[in-house]
Amino acid sequence: MLSLLHIENIAIIEQADIVLQPGFTVLTGETGAGKSIIIDSIGAILGQRTSRELIRNGAKKGFVSAVFEDIPPALKRQLEELGLDTEEDGTVRIQRELSAEGRSVCRVNMRPVSASVLKTLSPYLINIHGQHDGQKLMQEEYHIDFLDSFFEAEPLLEQFRPMYAKLHTLRSKIRELEKSGQQREQRIDMLRYQMEEIAAAELKAGEEETLTERRQFFENAGQLAYSLQAASKLLSGNEEDDGAMDLLSRAADELADVATLSQDLNHLSQKAEEIRYQVEDLAASVAMLAADVDFSPQERDAVEERLDTIYRLRRKYGATVEEVLAYYDKASKELGELENADDRKDEMMEEYHQTLTKAREIAGELSKHRRQAAELLEAKIVEQLKDLDMPKVRISIQVSSQTKLNPHGMDEVRFLISTNPGEPVKPLSKIASGGELSRIMLAIKNVLTQTEDVGTLIFDEIDTGVSGRAAQKIALKLGEISRRKQTLCVTHLPQLAAMGDHHLLIKKSLSEEYTFTDVFNLNEEERVGELARMLSGDAITELSMQNAAELLERAAANKKK
């Protein structure tokens, strides 16, 4: 059950704390007051897609938080599977922060999660029925989803969907293998040529870096030889001049002669001796490198030729030597598949037929369950419609099995209706009026949610196209539903509003610069005034106040029945 909804900087709502209770809660207010904003805010904490336009003008962030109490066991299990725990008091707190840059941060009990996790949890939290659900009822491709929800087809569908996807993949691969033999032979010749070209080069990983370094050596060899020879001369000296090594050796000998005179001189003598050894090592290393600075023009040409070969292969097959070698492996695999195409095609055909047989078996199971469920669902919907002032209506759920599989199995489902005795059943879109569709959708929703774990139902303007006696019947039905599950209803009809156990008024106010929406929990006296406004508009009269009070009295009497 949703017990608290906190909204900050969402559209024209600057801040609102909405405390919700069990039973039937109605939300009313003028058109444009912000009722849909509350539904959108609830949608945000259920993981639905949001946009930066939802954030209040001038604000950097928007924020929605919801607290759920008395959570069902199924939700507890789902939270445990996701590694999320309930609060100490057994509640679940969901938060979603929206930024003006389009980013979204979601949390469950203060732990960061993705929006997809919120979508996973949403079926256990809230079921929202909006106007788009009524539109789905008009579109026959969605009818199968209504029927499948009734008998919990998901376990069978979870087995069927991977097989259906596998069949699609296998069909594509088989068609590819069935391409003309000439195309396949051309591709085989091309792959063989490419592989031979790469293999002939005998590439090695890291080879290009080594060769590039060697080429840089060639390009700087003159400067390198000159610098090394000069350094060697300065360190070791020659017949004419002493080098640094000779001068340092003499300095070390002079210090050694006086080393015994003091501790400081002894320390300096030792240090000079260490430096002399280091310089000797340095001179030897420089002399060795100077001696190695030698190469032949043939070696330089060989390096350039090798780098040119690598560059040419990289232009064709990859940005690096490693990518060229990877292309070779990929080409080798493709070549093997093409050369064994006929064998692989036979294997795939066998796998395809085996998968098709299994998929048809599961589709047959789905079809059997759908036919059984259709009869039961028909009866339950008709029973609900009697309470909604449609006692003569007939509903027929037609399950047609096809030979060709589809993403749902092998069936197509259509909801057909006859609203008058003696008339044949016809498609909903051709027969039902707006008010009838609202009642049919409410009947279906009531049947489907009876066995669901979800604790809160929200009906967003279920009264569209309804008035008079039909509106009163819908109000009674919502009151009946609210005795099983927490029920919220956004409505413009006073008959529905009067049936609420709790009444929230959504009111918009204007200042010089901003528009604000506030949410008020009405007491009995305030409810009379709001119902009178709904009955007569802004011109509230004594008669409309009396009618409003009478509506509340009648609703209270109906609740006791």
Report on this model:
- With 561 residues, the chain is of the alpha/beta class.
- Helix content is 57%, strand content 18%.
- The strands form 3 sheets. Strands 2-1-4-5-6-7 form a 6-stranded antiparallel sheet. It has a 6-stranded mixed sheet with strand order 8-12-13-3-14-15.
- Helix 6 runs antiparallel to helix 14 (341-387), helix 7 packs antiparallel against helix 13 and helix 19 crosses helix 20 (542-560).
- The longest helix is centred in the middle third of the chain and has 47 residues, at 341-387.
- The protein starts with a strand and ends with a helix.
- The relative contact order is 0.13.
- The model has no long low-confidence stretch (mean pLDDT 86).
Compile the SSE list and pairings:
Elements: E1 2-10, E2 13-19, E3 24-28, H1 35-45, E4 61-68, H2 73-81, E5 92-99, E6 104-108, E7 111-113, H3 115-121, E8 126-129, H4 131-138, H5 143-151, H6 154-177, H7 181-201, H8 207-219, H9 221-236, H10 244-257, H11 263-292, H12 297-317, H13 321-339, H14 341-387, E9 394-406, E10 409-418, E11 426-427, H15 428-431, H16 434-449, E12 456-460, H17 468-482, E13 486-490, H18 494-499, E14 502-510, E15 515-521, H19 524-536, H20 542-560
